[in-house]
Amino acid sequence: MPVMFHRVSPDAEGLHVCHACGGSLTDVVTKDGCEEDWTSSALDFQRRVAAAIGCGWGFPIERVPVHVLPYLFGLRLMARLFLSGIPAGRLCEVVARKLGVDPPVGRRLSGEKVLEKCRVDERMMVMAGLEWMMAGWPDNFIDGCREAHVRYSDLFRNKFPPPYWLHHVAREHLLSKQPCGSGRKKGGRKTRFQVPRKMVPIPVLDGLGEDESRLLEWACVSWYRARRVAGLRTRSVNRDLRCVYGFIRYIGKPPWCCDERDIDRWSEEIGLRRQLKPDTQRTYLGALKWFLEHLGRQRWFRRECPVLELPRVSEEQLIPHAPGVRGGNVAKDGASPGPVGVVEAQESSSDVRTMDDREKLERCLLPVRGKRNKICDCCGRGMPKATRIFEGKSYCGTCYAREFAPVPCGKCGATVRTLGGRGPAICQRCEIAGRKCIRCGKPVPRASLTLENGVACASCAKYFKPPVPCAKCGAPSRHLARAFKLGIDAPVCPKCRKPPKETCSICGKSRAVRQRGAEGKPICWSCVRAREAGFLCPKCGRRGIRRNDEECEDCYWNGRFQLLVNKGLESLSVDWVREGWSAYAKERARSIGSNRALLKLKKHLPLFQLVDRSCRGDAGTLDLDALFMGLGSGGLASFGKPWRALSDLGLVPPMGSKTMDDARCMERCREMLRTAEKCWYGTILEGYWTHLLRKKDAQVAKGWETAGFAPRTLAAYMKAAVHFLEFMGDPQAEDTKAIPLSRWSRDFYNAYPGYTASILAFVKYLNIYQEKMLRS
Question: Which of 213, 258, 482, 685 would be a feasible disulfide site paired with 262, CB 3.0-4.6 Å?
Answer without folding.
Answer: 258
